[in-house]
Amino acid sequence: MNCRILATMDFCLRCFLAFLLMGGVLASRNGGDASFDQNYDITWGYDHVKSLDEGRQIQLSLDHSSGAGFGSKLSFGSGFIDMRIKLPGKDSAGVVTAFYLTSHSNNHDELDFEFLGNREGKPITLQTNVFANGQGNREQRMYLWFDPAADFHSYKILWNQYQIVFYVDDTPIRVFKNHTNIGVSYPSQPMQIEASLWNGDSWATDGGQTKTNWSHAPFQAHFQGFDINGCSDHQEPNVEPCYSTSYWWNTQKYWTLDSAHQRAYENVRKKYLTYDYCSDRPRYPTPPPECPQ
Ligand SMILES: *[C@@H]1O[C@H](CO)[C@@H](O)[C@H](O)[C@H]1NC(C)=O
Ligand SMILES: *[C@@H]1O[C@H](CO)[C@@H](O)[C@H](O)[C@H]1NC(C)=O
Question: Quick one: a GO biological-process term for this protein (predicted)?
């Protein structure tokens, strides 16, 4: 071969390598690629956890002997936390699948998604709760507009200094505003991301009257999406550095819902909300101060 051909081949090889490298950089910048082990650890029920798809999917199982759970390696002081979940199908009455943020402190902060299973053909309930400085009792419950056991959906929690928003896919379903100016505590402690599958049949379905039918065990929940959009740049217990607007979820766009999201939020609550502590008069003769007047 003459020199010109060799030089061209060399050039092409370099191009090809550069192309591959760029592809790699783009893929990791687009995210969605972290394996479970990079960001999470199993916390209990080790033999009831299965890693699938090279760690891109995790299966938790529940039977009479145990459920299982996992948690993030790091704690976070703000973020837009996202998990893709497919719930146990068929008869899942009594079975609770949980995805939440929690601090591990005495007066703890916690933001919960809890999916309450049901008999086959009856709807699964999504319960959310907010704990701040140890105080919870802020349950809201709703049905979903799809079957959450049929496929994966995204469940997300936005947490910045201004608001906490729970999302189902891209629809906001709950907003908890920073109302510290009227004396309501607001989550301010570093929280870990956790998920678990367990037997809640003492309370979860029809107030505990509908029990888990163990002949359907093992119940299985599947999780995907182990990248974390969260700020871990803090020295516990102070999360101040996580309020920086260098994190996109702290920028003004995320301080309130925009009008399209506000409409979607109102619409979904009108159609699917089944319980709101804010309007439970027997329980709260005077609505708690954070509730809309
Ligand atoms: C809540 O909002 C106030 C301003 O009204 C702010 O100073 C404070 O840092 C916020 N609290 C948290 C925990 O983000
Ligand atoms: C539990 O499931 C089995 C199998 O489908 C069924 O035969 C049985 O009647 C169920 N038990 C209850 C209490 O629903």
Answer: cell wall biogenesis
Instruction: Report which protein residue has its CA nearest ligand 2's atom 4.
Output: 215
For residue 25, the model assigns a pLDDT of 35
CB 114 within 8 A of CB 96: yes
pLDDT digits (tens, 9 = 90+) for 133-162: 999 999 999 999 999 999 999 999 999 999
Which residue matches tokens 């020295």?
235
> Ligand 2 within 6 A of 209 CB?
no
User: Which tokens hold the place of 209?
Assistant: 């009257």
- Sign of dihedral through CA atoms 266, 269, 270, 271? positive
Structural domain boundaries, residue 78: 35-279
189 in a domain, yes or no? yes
Q: Tokens in use for 270?
A: 């009108």
pLDDT at residue number 1: 40
Residue with tokens 């907003």: 175
> Which CATH number covers residue 166?
2.60.120.200
74 or 25: which leads in pLDDT? 74
Distances (CA, A) of 121 to 114, 118, 147, 287: 19, 8, 10, 35
Cβ atoms < 10 Å from Cβ of 259: 8
Query: Is there an atom of ligand 1 within 6 Å of 180 CB?
Result: yes
Nearest ligand (C-alpha, residue 103): 1
172 inside domain: yes
More confident residue, 8 or 182: 182
Q: Tokens standing for 68?
A: 């299982």
Q: What is the residue-averaged pLDDT of the chain?
A: 91
